[in-house]
Amino acid sequence: MCPAATLSRLALIEARRSGLPWLLIAGAAAALGLAGFLSQVALTESLQLQTAIAAALLRACAVFIVAIHVATSTVREFDDKGLELVLSLPLSRTAYYLGRLAGFVLVAIAVATALALPLFVWSAPGAVALWWLSLAAEAALIAAAALFFSMALAQLVPAIASVAGFYLLARAIGSIQAMASAPLAEPTLAQDLARRGLEGIALVLPRLDAVTRTEWLLYGTPPAGEFGAALLGLALYALLLVAAGLFDFHRRNL
Amino acid sequence: MSRDERALSVVPGWLWLALGAGLALQIGWQATGKPASSMEATDLPPAPRSAALRLASFGEPQAAARLAMLYLQAFDLRGGRGVPYRRLDYARLTAWLGAILETDPRSQYPLFSAARVYAEVPDPARARIALEFVYHEFLKDPDRRWPWLAHAALLAKHRLRDLPLARRYAAAVDHLTTSNDVPLWAKQMEIFVLEDMNELEAARIMLGGLLERGRITDPAEARFLRERLDQLEARIRGSGSPAR
């Protein structure tokens, strides 16, 4: 087995032994319980409400679990001097980084799969399949982002805060741009500068508001072109994150 | 006991006491406090812009719209069921409903609430505000929103006894809907309005038609509408004469 594959396997074993499956079960149960409770007080659209709330919570749960798992695992590797040990072996930095990333991506896919399963109860299988595929891609992207920030910052709290900020901004940037482009008052120079600044920020963020959409579960699947374009956007951004992570890792004096 | 834990007997006695006292204090404090459900009714705050709701939803507008509806719904109940909706500022209420509908335009929840809940209050001024809201939102998507305006037409005739208003709504359903999914009885709402039919008969025909065509699939909605029909039947039976 090649060293990168061994590292991937180790990441999977670590996920299994660190109680991740139990966390998934608890997360899914909490999301379904809350959605079930809220649907009981709805006067109409109770099934849609249940689906929408459960999907939103399961999505957040998947991303949160993947980000925390990747960040803690990576920072622990730093703190235990495991990284120095591995790099003393005949293994390139690229192989190490990609091997770890591949393992985390597999964990992300497993997490997305486990958390998408409950939605088959309420939604059409085709819609859930697309939602799952999109969630798996989104979770994989977050794994790449968490690895990048953890390797770059080497401390747990700053790494998690950075991933959280990145994720929330990427999900809200579309709405922020829409608000900035339609101001209530007369446009001023400051507003124009702010709008252009936002456009600049949006250029270096993935459009996470375009993926894993609850409306696919409620109102039908998206056109194939739209879905493909959204996933392609994630893939391109993942490439950017991997390149940036490798660039930083190769520069690091360890 | 796992290998990481020591026996319970090694925990000092004062720590047992502290844990028990802490738990008792917490439960006592919570038990003597005022329950959340008995809090004073507060005014409905001004409605947010739909853009703000979208921003707060972090890309989940469908979930946010439905949560906002539950929030709005809970407002009516906070003052107790004795005086439901009476304290609500309907201008703010319809602004909220509009913002929620704009956040998820395909959700039927805001229009359902406007037509079936907020328009059925005994206060005619408030009912008219809710009905006009339904009418204006209907104009934006007639083929999807016609059932609420059809109900609004019946309310205008039987509750407000405003025949011109009822005919305006019925004519709008007739003239502005283009989809083949709109049933014939809905296209002929004006006949409903003009016919000498009591409210119960009209409601039965309308709900029967909706159920038959599979437009009401949600169990909560079907239950709610059945209850409303029963209430209407009891009210008409109690008053002794059919409401014309």
Overview in brief:
The complex is a heterodimer of chains A (254) and B (244). Chain A is mainly alpha-helical. Helices cover 80% and strands 0% of the residues of chain A.
Would you write up a description of this structure?
The complex is a heterodimer of chains A (254) and B (244). By secondary structure, chain A is mostly helical. Chain A has one domain (3-251). Helices cover 80% and strands 0% of the residues of chain A. Chain A contains ten helices and no strands. The mean pLDDT of chain A is 91. By secondary structure, chain B is mainly α. Helix content of chain B is 66%, strand content 0%. The termini of chain B are far apart. In chain B, helix 3 packs antiparallel against helix 4. In chain B, 35% of the residues are buried. Chain B has a domain at 144-244. Chain B has helices at 13-32, 50-57, 61-78, 90-103, 109-116, 124-140, 142-158, 163-176, 184-187, 189-194, 199-212, 219-239.
